[in-house]
Amino acid sequence: MTEYRPNDPIEEDQIDLVALAKKIWSKRKRIAKFTLLFAIVGLLVALLSPVSYTTSSVFIPNSTSDKTPSGLSSLASLAGVDLSSASGSEISPVLYPKILESASFKRQVLNIGLFHAGDSISFKDYILNQPKTVGSVINKYTLGLPGTIKSLFSANTDTVAESLEDGEILTISQRESELFEQLNEVIAIAINEKERYIELTVTLGDPKIAAIVAKECEKLLQARVIMLKIKQSTELLNYVEARYEEKKADMHAAQNRLANFKDRNYSISNSSFGNQLTRLEQDYQMASAIFQEVAKQLEQVKLQVSKDTPVFSIIKPVVVPTEKSAPKRSLILVIWIFLGLVVTIGYTLIEDPLKEIVKQIKS
Question: Domain range for residue 137?
């Protein structure tokens, strides 16, 4: 009869763990050497990594928009504009990151004018003129090696990407796409849905340039939100302004016809003259009444556009940062030491099985 011992599997697991621990301990010198090597590389990366500064802007979007008057809704329907879906609704802050991701917005950011090193340049030229540091090169070919290898196989200066935006197809070159990727590392936006505020941050090596870019990005983002919010009411405004000019011209034409008729027939007082004069006066009065009504509608639409225009309350304005935000040298060093331990211990544990597999392949 076989005796059942429930502790046997646990003892076997303990033996395996002890064997692994002994194997690691036997290779402790090699582990220490390679970990020290990783620590040296991490120290070099930490010391040679470029210093960067982060500045931010915190603001809250407010809107004075209320319900659209029924008269404007009917007028908008004549112009082919649906104000009911736009007025009183807000551009959700959750969509703000999508605005930052758009190609047209990034092009506007790259065209921001800067005054750097005594010259007026664009932000695009500023990025292209930034020298590569030793630390960034080391990081690129170590921790960033997978991405570097991927870019070598996918890089092609002749390829283009196409983006459909606002009914227009935008063609983006490979070089421009690379600049857009760099902007993703420079500009970030955070949304606090509970408190309903937006924080826009910019990180660059020059604190003054970072502050300028952050302020301009804030203006561009707010302008884009305003444009989207008042798009439909602006279309209605353009329609009413065109009708206003037409009715104004009609009124002036009727007024001129009445005046010319009176001038030509100043001394005539027969019935035919009176009938024609009455008709011309009625035409002028009707044209004037229509013009006055359109003018009233124009003022209402202008007021509606003003109501639909969101107002942004700046909670934390952009300031020139005085303290660096990166690199965090101690954290970089700890990461590299940890990476060295993981890589070296992992290789130690799979070294013998790996050699056995290679041996079997060769045989």
Answer: 52-75+83-230+313-324
